Amino acid sequence: MRIKGREISLFRTGCLILYYGIAQFLPETGKWFNIGGYLRYQLCRRIFRKCGANVNIERRAWFGSGADIEIGEYSGIGINAHIPSDTIIGRYVMMGPNCYILDSNHEFSDVDTPMCFQGHSQRRQTIIEDDVWIGRDVCFTPGRYVKTGTIIAMACVMTKDFPEYSIVGGNPSELIRSRISKPNKQ
């Protein structure tokens, strides 16, 4: 099987079938002796390009083929999250429920052609660095680069990138404040 010019093994295909057919529907992590969290992690270790230790894939997470996903240790993909299969997630990343990462938008530049016939823009990869906290219901526009130590507030629409250790919120996203304290000038 080929996806985006990349060979997907029969074993990986079997893991995808087991994930989308059974494991994604199992109880959230920590319930029923953690059987759901354990099985999702074991399958995703074999699906993703890179998968660190102690990764938490919550129920109903969608990640396409997952062939190009990289996720670092102690990170997680939230309940009902929807991420493209080429997303890179660093270490120690917390992701709340219902997060949605877009990788392209509809084209709309030709006013003489209905938008539904104009296709999509070029796909853009989202990269999330280490030690990031993403609240619930956050939506990312294509190509976001989330820097180390960032906190993204609940229901934020990430429309641009921010410096390291930012606290971001709103629709559209705006800087609330920096987590780095500034020295007092005397």
Tell me about this structure:
The protein has helices at about 10-20, 35-45; strands at about 1-5, 5, 50, 55, 70, 75, 90, 95, 100, 125-130, 135, 140, 145, 150, 155-160, 165-170, 175-180. By secondary structure, the chain is of the alpha/beta class. Strand 16 (about 165-170) and strand 17 form a beta hairpin. Helix 1 runs antiparallel to helix 2.
Summarize the structure.
It is built from two helices and 17 strands.
Mean of pLDDT: 93
Give the topology string: H per helix, E per strand.
EEHHEEEEEEEEEEEEEEE
Shape: globular
Helix content: 10-25%
List descriptors.
186 residues, alpha/beta, five-stranded parallel β-sheet, 2 helices, 17 strands, 13% helix
Helix-strand blueprint:
Blueprint: E1 2-3, E2 6-7, H1 10-21, H2 35-47, E3 50-51, E4 56-57, E5 70-71, E6 76-77, E7 88-89, E8 94-95, E9 100-101, E10 127-128, E11 133-134, E12 139-140, E13 145-146, E14 151-152, E15 157-158, E16 166-169, E17 174-178
Helix pairs in contact: 1-2
